[in-house]
Amino acid sequence: MRVLIAEKAQADYARRLEQVLGPDLELVGSDDPQQLPDLAADCQIWLGQPDLLAQVLREGPKPQWLQSTWAGITPFLADGLPRDYLLSRAVGIFGQVMTEYVLCHMLAHERQISAQQAAQARQQWRGELPQSLAGRRVLIVGCGDIGHSMALFLAAFGVELHGIASQAREQGPFIEVASISELPRMAAEADYLINLLPDTPATQNIYNSELFALLKPSAMFINAGRGAAVVDEDLVSALQADRLAAAVIDVCRVEPLPAGHMFWTAPRLLLTGHSSAPTQPALMVKLFVDNLERFQAGQALQGLVDFSRDY
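The line above is the sequence of Phosphoglycerate dehydrogenase; the predicted structure tokens follow.
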């Protein structure tokens, strides 16, 4: 059985897979879009980046099973691409690293790191005291694999955890998980509003002027989900009008963000360049090997995508 690896780190993936699986699989790989279609033609299984493999699908080859190395699979949902194959997302490997990303910005906000740095540049001794995360109300919008893992990590900091999912449900350690229709009510009470939602028609443009107008002026908005969820102009307007304390934006509608975009100069907005949760090859290989065993046994795959729901 031949496996195509389409990854910038394809040599690392191949080395790790050979250590685990030995000669059981024939591994071929590249990160060159020109080479990948020919390599893919005889491969039943594909492993790699959606941005590379979506181009291969458009050229004609198609796998029996494709394991994405990203949590997001938006490139595979483009018009004209096939949907009659097994596609699995990367799940169970991003919880800690995504929490580290979110937590560092929450702590920096409470400890007033930016103000401290600015005061140091002015050679000014600040007397203002920082605050604590304990008791802060955190709303995680998207309570799937990553959101649930994040909640488990954040619980140790004494925050008040609330969530938003497609449908209301009971889910520890959240105090409440409400449906997406309840986002305005829940967001109005949040100290930290964290978006982790995938990009679907139902999640586009939900962070708009109407929603931002409901937030506490002291609230922080963190978008580590998808850029299409945010109306860019409305977020910048909220920051300019001091209706929002700060925003951390990891994902944008167009990436890389073009020169001249309003995010570059918006007040109290930090851009992090889609770096919140890089895929760690060791964890990804472990997930792939587990799913390979499931695939060969005809069992359900972890992270199997339901194309009718776009995730």
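Note on the example: Residues 255 and 273 are 8 Å apart (CA to CA). The chain has a mean pLDDT of 96.
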